[in-house]
């Protein structure tokens, strides 16, 4: 519960706020390219981008996963553990990793049913793999 509350405060919620955040990141990226091309100072733009990326759970997930893998390759296990914690925090906020559980509802014309979904995670060599184990029961 504590981690969920902290993540809600850290990451932008799904919907318009997330779309607005990503639009702003896109605009800042364009501005960064233009400023760099004209030999302007890019430090403040880069800082804004880093600050906003920290609010996008998907961006944090990718950045921290890469950092964790680099730390493991370099033998910095304490750093890898810290990055791994941030990976898990971001992952817990991403819908594609929160499918596990009992899903009950009307699925098609045949009426109500329930799905039991279990998710197994395995992070291997820069590829985040997960598999779903599910079963469907029409008897509701």
Tally of separate domains: 2
Q: How is the biggest beta sheet arranged? A: 3 strands, antiparallel
Stretches with pLDDT under 50, minimum 5 residues: 124-130
Distance between the termini: 31 Å
Give the strand line-up of the largest sheet: 1-2-3
Element-level helix/strand string: HHHHHEEE
Which shape, going by the Cα principal axes?
A: extended
Binned strand content: 15-25%
Cα Rg: 20 Å
Helix run count: 5
Number of strands: 3
Structural class: alpha+beta
Mean pLDDT: 82
Could you estimate the helical fraction of the residues in percent? 40-55%
Write a structural description:
There is one protein chain. The protein has a three-stranded antiparallel beta sheet, with no helix packed on it. Helix 4 (57-73) runs antiparallel to helix 5 (77-93). The longest helix has 22 residues, at 16-37. The chain has five helices and three strands. With 140 residues, the chain is an alpha+beta fold. 9% of the residues are buried. The chain folds into two domains: 2-98, no CATH class; 99-140. The model is unreliable at 124-130 (pLDDT under 50).
